[in-house]
Each structure stands twice: as structure tokens, then as C-alpha cells.
Amino acid sequence: MEVTRQKLDGLESDLEREKFRAKQMRARDMLRGDLDGKELEDYVQERVLTSTLEKAFDWARGNSMFPLTFGLACCAIEMMSIPGSRLDIARFGFEAFRASPRQADLLILSGRISIKMAPVIRRIYDQMLEPKYVIAMGACSSSMGVFNNYAIVPADKFMPVDVHVPGCPPRPEALMHGIIELRSMVHEDPTLGWRARYSAYGTEEVVPKPAADATGVNVFGAGGTEDEIA
Amino acid sequence: MPDAAGLEKLAAAIGPESVLGTVHTDVRSEISVRPETIVSVLAKLRAESYGDLRSVHGVDYYPEEPRLCVKYEMLSRELLDRVSVSVRVALDDPRVPSVTPDWPTANWPEREAFDMFGIVFEGHPDLRRILMPEDYEGHPQRRDFPIGGEPVIFTHNESSVPGWFE
Amino acid sequence: MTTEARDLSGYRQMEESVTLSEESFVEGDRELLTLNIGPHHPATHGVLRLVVTLDGEIIRDVSPVIGYLHTGIEKTAEVKSYWKAIPVIERMDYLAYYFNGMGYCGAVEKLLGIEVPKRAQYLRVIHLELNRIMSHLVWLGTSALDLGAISVWWYCFREREQLLDLFEMSSGQRMHTRYVQIGGVAEDIPRGWEEKVREFLAIMPERADVYGDLLNKNEIFLQRMRGVCPASAESLRALGVTGPLLRAAGDPWDLRKAMPYSSYEDFEFKIPVGTQGDNYDRYAVRLAEIKESVKIVEQALDGLPEGPCITEDRKVALPPRHELATSMEALIHHFKLVTEGMRVPEGEVYNAIEGPRGEYGVFIRSDGSSKPARVHMRDPSFVNLQATPALVEGHLLSDMIATLAVMDPVIGGVDR
């Protein structure tokens, strides 16, 4: 929840203006019930501050994502040309490929996933820290593609995927587009990923709790997020 | 590939006790031998200057019997020639002596044939599944093994594909 | 120890190779360490897994575990008609897609007994050699990257993009072009393509020299490569190793020269061979092969004959577009080919060509129907990778990374 200021001049008809005013009055009434005076001021200020800070976080997060150095098959070769001189993914801040899943934010599934590899990929995904995003690159990892047979499994069967990039293999430009889509998704709202699609709230690996350790200090920082998520 | 006469000569050099027959076409010369003699047959071919084993692979001749077959593609770098050796084994007793001790290159291909067709290579130092997971059941490249996969969903059949909405 | 833990160790034993059990302890308190590398590891070039047994930093045993990219391509090819199986097979060794298509189509052509027009053969050679350059460029870039030389990678991928533009111009796709068809090639080269290729050929030898200059005077690179993990030609030959790995050991075996196919006998080129059989030779042989490939493409472009680019046999190749409007027969052939595919006479064939990594062999068994009854690919990566223990045992762990890089296994080809 955040405070948006809207100019009344922008509204077209009188009817709309009336509706907006009614909404305003209703909101004021709703707030008046619980908080008043300074408390209300504090509440609003806190909300505005945190939401703006979250926006700043999202902006930073979307512009400096660390993909995992992880290649599977043909698509990996096309993925490798992304940091190359022609496309230069560094323009969008995605060039820092990390070899360890612990340091990576983005898993690009570049190629076909065999039934032998699927548990490994799931484990790599579980090792990544929140927030994490997944791009299924190519037909095989999205839908098994041309290899619709006993050995292959699509990524959606065992892990959530945020963006699917079609193609066999997709051109590097297509992967760039997928990455930029992911970036705008993160900018807009990082919770708009697969969790929103599958209503999978509460499945985060580490749910920050206001748990106090022996000295009574809140080790997880600001608490109360669990309720918000739920 | 040797011509028909050359192939017969080669088969004679291997010896009638192990040769079951020869197949000669425009593109292939093949000697089929008894499974239990394969090690000595390849040794004799090596003496006939066929000193390189290029490929070992299984074939399933379903529904013919005996169903399973192992092919050994031999290459002679002196004669610039290729000849193939095949052994056929029945499905209920698919045992072939391993040639890995003599030909180190046969190690993984034999494991692959074991994995994909269930042909047991006796004397192989390390006969395990190689491509499929260790706990996989069945031998996927046999002809009667289903190819697997999923029905592709289009707009015309999406309601008839079970579980499409999940 | 609980039963669960014992079960786990049993699984571990299953995964280890049999040569491992002999020396579990060596003198005093030194203990062997088993280290798992992969399947996800940036230095394994794909999803290869290596279970390495270390004595300090010395490798005592290494057993590659493969199959993490097993795709069932051979099985899938069995349910597709002959010409629809080409795209599936091209995705096997994804750095040598022209070679996969060429090996397969050559095998089917042998079974059908059809003649490929001379122009198609030359066009195939041009594309095969450009593909070889592309494959070696990716290999050089990634191998140098493994040794810490990232700048070579940028240069190699710059040239690779140029090559992929050429592929895209002639076939419409960057990778997996499906350009090689049964009976010829999919389409004649477009206007202006030849000039573009010549432009590329003019700069490529110079660029290869630039890579050489970057690496050959780099002391770190030389120390990581010279005299590291040498192998004799005899031991490699016994392991079935082919391609640049074997030639680096001094064995000049090249199918293009020894058993020519697709008009390779028309061209003059040399086979680079090494003398020591160490990593440096493996690198130098491939760098020299890039230049030889440039020569072959130049000769093929100079001598490119006129004529059709695919066989005139309408039972095998699709009729040209204009015939469909005028000839009923062409329409029937088109319909038959697209719906059912061609029927290939009963028989078996093994067709081998020389790829960038060695011998690509394709075995096809036909039962007379329009679908192959069995397709088997003898992929050089699969066979060459068997030589890893022989090459790296007794050497340092860091040298194994370098050796694995110069061995150039493509996991898509290993696991198929």
C-alpha cells in the first residue's frame, strides 16, 4: 500500500471526479478508525519509505543480475555468445556469470534436460539464494521440443520457470529479449514471478522471522514479513 | 570394404568353425560369427591387418530371432578397408564375451550396448549402465520399448489430453 | 555406521571405477581423496562428471560419469522418416551440425545408391570446412578461457559470429541448419554469399595468426600446455582415439585423405601433425587445421561447378517449386515424400566422415520401410573421452582441466 497523489484536473468527466472524491473520503474514513494524528503520520511515512526502498532494491536487482555459468546443450553455445562483443549483455548488467549457485540469481536452462540431470538441476536451483529467477531457454527445456521421448523431461515438471524463450536453439537476440522481459518483471514487482502465477506464497526457502537469539537481538532484521506474504 | 571374393577369403582365414555366414552388398561386407568365438575372431582379423576397432553397437532385430545383435566395425588402415563382424544372441540369454581386454576402445561402447539393449558382455571389467541413471529399469533402445514422451497439446486436442490443465 | 550410510557408500563404490579399490592408503598417513567434479562445473565443458581420486594434487584415478545429457536421439530417429530424422541427428554434436547431417545423409545415400551432383558435393565441402573452423574457434576460445586467457575468447567469438552469419545467409539458421539433405544440399547458395565467404577467408588466416601470437608468447599458457599429459600414438590408437588428438601424437590419419568422400580428393591440403603428443601439440594442430580448412574452402569456391545442387531423383528429393504448378507427377512425388517419406531398400551401412573431433560414423539399418530401423552414431567425443584416464593419471589436477579442455569433448555427442 502506498500513497499516490493524483491531480484532479487529469480526470475527464465530472462523474469520474465524483467517484475519485468518494474514494478519497472512504479511504480517509477507513484510516480514521485505527490510527489518528501522529500515529497516522508515522504509519504513512513508514509505508512510503519502505515501498520506495523496495523499488530501489528492485531497480538494483533487475539491473545487476548474476546468471549461473551453466550450460546444458546446443543453447549453451548460443548463450555463450551473449556476453560476446556483438550482443554484449554487459549493457544490461547481466554479464557477471557466476560459477557457484550460491552467488547466482538467475539460472538459464540452456538445453535439453535428461532424467539423469533433472535432480541435479533441482539441487542447483535449491542451492541458489532468494530471490532467484529461472529462464528456460529453447524448446527442449520448455516443452521437450523435438526430443519427445523417454530420456527428456521439461523444466516445468520439477521446478518453477519465470520466462520461457522459444526457439531451437533461440537466437541470442531472443535470449536477450527474454532477459529484458525478466528485468522489466523484476523492476515492476519481483513478486510477480512464478509464485504469483501458482499462488505459491510461503514457499520461500528462508522466511525471515522476528526470532530473537540469546541476546535478544533480532537477527533477521525487520520482521513481520511472513504475515505480509501470507 | 572388401569385394565378395575378398570377404570369402577373410571368412576362410577366420575359420569355418566360427563363421556362420557372410553378407556382401554394394555398401557393406559383414561376417556373422558365433558369439562365443568373437574374441578369437577379432584377434584373427587383427592379424589380417584389420587393426582398428571403430565402433561397437547393438542392434535389435525385433521380431526376428535371435533378436539382439552386436556389430563390430573394423577398419584396416593398411588396406584402407572396412569390414563388419556381427554376433546374434537370443533375448533370453544375451551373453557375448567382452572384447575390452584386447580392445580398450570397446569399453564404453559395450557398456552402452548393455545399457540400451541389455546385452551382457562377459568379462567386461566394469559393466554398468552408462547413459541412463543407475536405477533405471528397462533397456530403452530395444524395439519393443515405448518411445515415451508426452502428447503435444494443440488447440484442437487440448481438452482430450488427460491432465492438460494441471 | 548406520545402514543408510552404508548404502550411500555402496552407491559411491558403484560409481567409482574398478581400478580404484587397489590403493586406498599409501605410505604413512597420506590418504587418497575422492573429489567429485561436475556434472555442473564450468571447467567440464558441459554436463560431464568426473570422480577424481587424488593423492595430494596428483591424480591417481579418474572415472568420467556420463549420460547427463542423454537425449535418446537414436531412438527418436527410429520413429521419424528418413529425411525428418536429419534435424534430430544434427542436434547430436552441437558444434558440428553439418558433419552430423553429412554422416547421416551419406549413409542413406549409400543405401539408396544415388549419385550426389558435383556442385552439391562442393557446397557440402565448403560448409563442412566452415563448420570445422567454427568448431575449432569455439574450442580455442573456451579452452583458453579455462586457462585464464579470456581475451582469446572474445576474438574467437567475434569470428564465430561472422561464420554464423554466413550459415544464416545460406540456410536461414545460425545453428542446426539442416543444410545437408539426402541427395544434395537444401538450397543453392544465395547471390553475394561467395563474396562474403571470400571476405571471411581473406581475414581468417591472419586472425589465426593473431590467436597464435596471443598464446604462443604467453609464458603461463606455454607452461600449462608444453609437455603436459603427453600420450603416444599407439596408446591412443588402441583406445580408438581419432581426429586432432591422434594427429597431435604424430599419426597422420585423416579420413579426408585416406578414404575421400564428397570430392575431398579434388583439393590440396595438408594434414598437420604434432611431434610430442602433448597439450601444446593438440592446440597447435587445431590452429593449423583452421588455416588448412581456409585453403580447402578457397579451392572449392574457385572450382565450384555449375549444375543442380540436389539429385534429380524425384523419389528422393523434393521437386522444385515451379514444377509443382505444372506437373502432376511432381505433385504426387511431393505428396509422397512429405507424407510418407522415401522408402529405402533393405540393408545396413556404416558411413564414416572426418569431423572436427575425429571419425563420425553413422550406422543405419533399413528394413525397407520409410523409417530407419536402427540408427547408431559413433561419435568421436564419446570414444575420445574414454582416453581421459590414460591421459591424465599421474598428472596434476590443474593439468586435467587443461587436458580436458584441449580434448574438446562435446557432451551432446558423448551422450547422444
Question: How would you describe this protein?
Answer:
- The complex is a heterotrimer of chains A (230), B (166) and C (416).
- Chain A is mainly α and 230 residues long.
- Chain A has 8 helices and 3 strands.
- In chain A, strands 1-2-3 form a 3-stranded parallel sheet.
- In chain A, helix 5 links the parallel strand 2 and strand 3.
- In chain A, helix 2 runs antiparallel to helix 6.
- The longest helix of chain A has 27 residues.
- Chain A starts with 13 loop residues before the first helix and ends with a helix.
- Chain B has a 5-stranded mixed sheet with strand order 1-2-5-4-3. A two-stranded parallel sheet of chain B has the order 6-7.
- In chain B, strand 6, helix 3 and strand 7 form a beta-alpha-beta unit.
- Chain C has 416 residues and is mainly alpha-helical.
- Helices cover 50% and strands 11% of the residues of chain C.
- Chain C contains 18 helices and 8 strands.
- In chain C, the strands form 3 sheets. Chain C has a 3-stranded antiparallel sheet. In chain C, strands 6-7-8 form a 3-stranded antiparallel sheet.
- Chains A and C meet through helix 3 and helix 4 of A and helix 2, helix 6 and helix 18 of C.
List its salient traits.
B: 166 residues, alpha/beta, two-stranded parallel sheet, elongated, C: mainly alpha, 3-stranded antiparallel β-sheet, globular
